[in-house]
Structure formats: structure tokens, C-alpha cells
């Protein structure tokens, strides 16, 4: 099971791997060097896969991706894809060694193309885990015409292939495979590989109907997470219960550029609204942030335990965190910066359970206005209703494990 990226990219695969191990299968995880300990703590045999995350992620570029994309889309996409091309050969070598004798190879979003070639080489099933609809479709940007959005997705897939075809041709030649004549998503579909959609179907209205032609090979299973506890959970629960339900601000694993400025803005906005604030920094050093009586600042927390005790949640828009706020049944404000985050913001607006804006354009005034909006009663009512439709983590993991086992069984009877 290969997965590269931040913890949000890796945890879905680790959750499935742990369940497959429980069922008696031999599982090997391939994760970034920074997260080997995380996967091993789940009891899984793990090897380092690809470079350290810092070598892969340029934080300034990640924060400003969408600003640059609007200014120069072709150049920005090439810069985004450059690390994939740079480490393509390294990840291919790792997977070629690990997959020798395996019954199945699974992959997350990053380096999916290299993994698909390795699975083709060994003639074993490939399973792709997608935490948002990354294949071309018309539902990602609801305010634009579906044909336009779908065409843009198809063009992006073609551009990625053209930008990386040299390194892919090298890999395929080394594996003794024929030269690729089209984008990887098309070839993955032609092999009838499973592309598991690890989120709930209702989050993207119309997507299931659009993808019905794939005959069940893009199943929706709900978000994959382990809902791990942290050392701060009891302290946070006690603080939350000691006053009015707070607004939770969760920053995710990408470091915040200025933690002190962020806390000051949150404090001022919540003071104006008469609310308490819980600030949960993930990958950020918060040891030097200012102190305010109505604001509690902590590190990582278990969102499944923390969010339900809050009045609303503000976060970066990662797929796992978005699912946690939807499962908690509370309104959400997404302050996004990169990757799939704006897509989740679009869908929360569409579902009428929250709103979103780019983090770089957020001010004290906009934060107050956005919080006033999502704290309106109709948002809470709608959020509670949608929470009842969310797939539980246990069911999501079980569904995924079932699909893995079925893929191997089908291959064996061919």
C-alpha cells in the first residue's frame, strides 16, 4: 500500500491497511520517511517511500498555488508537477521491489501513475484511493457549466501526461512495458482498476450519475480515518464543557505562516461576536503565540471527539477534516489555500452547511462576517441533518477492505 503526502494523504491507506492486517493479510506500507513511525504505530510493516516531505512540498508555493494558477496556469501546473517527475524513478524502484510477489498494489494520489505502471508490470490489481473527485467530471465547481469543468479536467490530465511523459517512458522502458500513448487515468480505466472514492456520495451531487458508465469501478465508501486520540483530548473536553460551546479553529498539518497573527485575528473576531475560541495547531509551533482569556490554544486533537462539542468549526478544507466537521453536524468555514481545499469549500456552500474563502484574503472583518453567516440557525439545522447521512469511519474502512479482498479474488478466478 503506497501513499505519499501529509498525514491527511497517508491516514486513509493506514486505516485500510490496519483492517486488512486484522483480517489476516500480510500488509506492507510505503509512506514518506516523515510518517514511517505513524504507520508503524498502527502495527504495520512500513518502508520509506519517496523524499522527506520538505523536499517535496514548497510551503510558499502550496500557500499561493491558486493565486499563481490564475495568473499563469500552465507554468503553475508544471511547477506543481515537477516534484512528481523528479522523484518518479525513485518511487518506481521502491514499488518494483516491494510489489514483487504481491497480490495487489494500492496507491494514493501522489505517484499514482508510477504505481499503475508497476501493477501493470506484475499483472496484479491496482486500487487507487481518491479522497476527492480527481478524475475529470462536471461537479467540482458548481458555479461553472458542467461541460466546461469536465473539459478542464480532461485537459489537465492530458497536460500532466505531456509534462511527465519522458520520465514515465523511462520507467515503462525499464519495466519492459510498451510506450504509453495516452494519459494514465485512461490506461487505469482500461485495465478496469478500482478507483475508490473515499468520501460520501452526497458531497458531490450528480457525480454518481455522471460516473455510472464506469460500472461500479468508482465506488463511494465514505472518508477513511482512524479517529486517533491525542494527549490534549481530555484537557480540551474539560475546557469546552466549562463554558459556552467554542468555535474551533483547526489548521491542519501544513504550517501556518504567522501563528501569532492568526491567534490575534481569531481572538479579536471571537471577542466581537462574544464567542470562545479553541485553536488547534497541527504542524505549527504555537509556543510563542499571545494569550487571551477566551481563547485556548493546543496542538493536534481528535476531531471526532472535539468537533461535536463546538458551535462551529473553521479549518483549512482538507478532505479528512471536512468529513469530521460534517460528521459532527456543525457549520463549517473553510479558509483554503491549495490542492483540493477550494473544491470542498465549493461543496459546503452548495450543501448550505458552511461557506469558504481563500485564507490569504481573510481579514478580521471578513472572518467576523463569515462567522456571523454560518452561526445563523439554518446552517446548524442543515448541518445536523446532513450528519445523519455520513458514513461512519468503521463502515468506510470495512467497505474498503472488502473491495481489496474482492479485487484479489476476481483476479485469481480469471
Instruction: State the domain count.
Output: 2
Calculate the mean pLDDT score and round it.
92
Radius of gyration: 21 Å
Share in helix: 40-55%
List SSEs in N-to-C order: HEHEHHHHHEHEHHEHHEHEEHEHEHEHHH
Please count the beta strands (DSSP E, at least 2 residues each): 11
- What's the total helix number? 19
Descriptors:
six-stranded parallel β-sheet; alpha/beta; 11 strands; 414 residues; three-stranded parallel β-sheet; Rossmann fold; 19 helices
What report would you give on this structure?
By secondary structure, the chain is an alpha/beta fold. The protein folds into 2 domains: 7-223 and 393-413, 3-Layer(aba) Sandwich (Rossmann fold), CATH 3.40.50; 233-387, Glycogen Phosphorylase B (Rossmann fold), CATH 3.40.50. The chain is built from 19 helices and 11 strands. The protein has helices at 7-22, 36-41, 53-56, 59-63, 65-71, 73-86, 88-98, 112-122, 146-175, 184-190, 207-210, 233-241, 259-273, 303-306, 319-328, 341-351, 364-374, 377-387, 393-413, and strands at residues 28-31, 45-48, 105-107, 126-130, 194-197, 247-250, 277-280, 295-298, 312-315, 332-336, 354-358. The strands form 3 sheets. The protein has a 6-stranded parallel sheet with strand order 8-7-6-9-10-11, sandwiched between helices. Strands 3-4-5 form a 3-stranded parallel sheet, sandwiched between helices. It has a two-stranded parallel sheet with strand order 1-2. Helix 8 (112-122) crosses helix 9. The longest helix has 30 residues, at 146-175. It is globular, with a radius of gyration of 21 Å.
Amino acid at each position: 500500500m503506497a501513499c505519499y503526502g501529509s498525514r491527511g494523504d497517508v491516514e486513509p491507506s493506514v486505516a485500510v491497511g490496519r483492517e486488512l492486517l486484522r483480517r489476516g493479510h500480510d500488509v506492507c506500507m510505503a509512506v514518506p520517511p516523515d510518517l514511517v513511525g505513524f504507520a508503524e504505530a498502527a502495527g504495520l510493516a512500513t518502508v520509506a517511500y519517496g523524499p522527506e516531505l520538505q523536499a517535496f512540498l514548497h510551503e510558499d508555493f502550496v500557500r499561493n498555488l491558486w493565486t499563481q494558477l490564475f495568473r499563469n496556469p500552465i507554468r503553475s501546473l508544471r511547477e506543481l508537477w515537477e516534484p512528481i517527475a523528479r522523484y518518479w524513478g525513485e518511487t518506481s524502484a521502491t514499488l518494483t521491489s516491494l510489489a514483487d510477489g504481491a497480490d495487489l498494489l494500492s496507491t494514493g494520489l501522489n505517484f499514482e501513475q508510477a504505481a499503475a505502471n508497476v501493477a501493470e508490470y506484475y499483472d496484479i490489481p491496482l486500487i487507487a484511493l481518491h479522497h476527492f473527485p480527481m478524475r475529470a467530471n462536471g461537479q467540482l465547481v458548481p458555479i461553472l457549466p458542467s461541460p466546461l469543468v469536465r473539459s478542464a479536467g480532461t485537459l489537465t490530465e492530458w497536460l500532466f501526461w505531456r509534462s511527465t511523459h519522458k520520465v514515465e517512458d523511462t520507467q515503462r522502458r525499464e519495466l519492459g512495458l510498451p510506450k504509453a500513448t495516452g494519459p494514465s487515468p485512461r490506461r487505469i480505466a482500461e485495465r478496469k482498476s478500482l478507483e475508490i472514492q473515499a468520501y460520501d456520495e452526497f458531497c458531490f451531487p450528480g457525480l454518481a450519475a455522471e460516473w455510472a458508465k464506469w460500472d461500479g469501478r468508482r465506488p463511494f465508501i465514505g472518508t477513511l480515518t482512524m479517529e486517533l486520540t491525542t494527549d490534549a483530548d481530555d484537557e480540551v473536553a474539560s475546557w469546552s464543557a466549562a463554558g459556552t460551546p467554542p468555535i474551533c479553529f483547526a489548521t491542519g498539518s501544513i504550517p501556518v505562516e504567522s501563528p501569532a497573527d492568526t491567534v490575534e485575528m481569531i481572538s479579536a473576531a471571537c471577542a466581537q461576536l462574544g464567542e470562545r475560541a479553541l485553536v488547534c495547531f497541527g504542524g505549527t509551533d504555537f509556543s510563542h503565540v499571545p494569550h487571551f482569556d477566551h481563547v485556548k490554544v493546543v496542538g493536534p486533537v481528535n476531531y471526532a471527539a472535539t468537533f461535536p462539542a463546538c458551535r462551529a468549526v473553521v479549518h483549512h478544507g482538507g478532505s479528512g477534516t471536512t468529513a469530521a466537521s460534517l460528521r459532527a453536524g456543525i457549520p463549517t468555514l473553510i479558509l483554503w489555500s491549495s490542492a483540493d481545499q477550494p473544491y470542498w469549500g465549493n461543496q459546503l456552500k452548495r450543501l448550505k452547511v458552511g461557506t469558504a474563502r481563500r485564507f490569504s484574503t481573510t481579514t478580521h472583518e471578513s472572518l467576523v462576517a463569515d462567522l456571523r453567516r454560518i452561526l445563523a440557525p439554518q446552517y446548524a439545522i442543515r448541518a445536523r441533518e446532513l450528519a445523519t447521512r455520513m458514513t461512519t469511519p468503521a463502515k468506510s474502512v470495512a467497505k474498503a477492505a472488502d473491495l481489496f479482498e474482492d479485487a484479489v479474488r476476481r483476479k485469481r478466478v480469471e
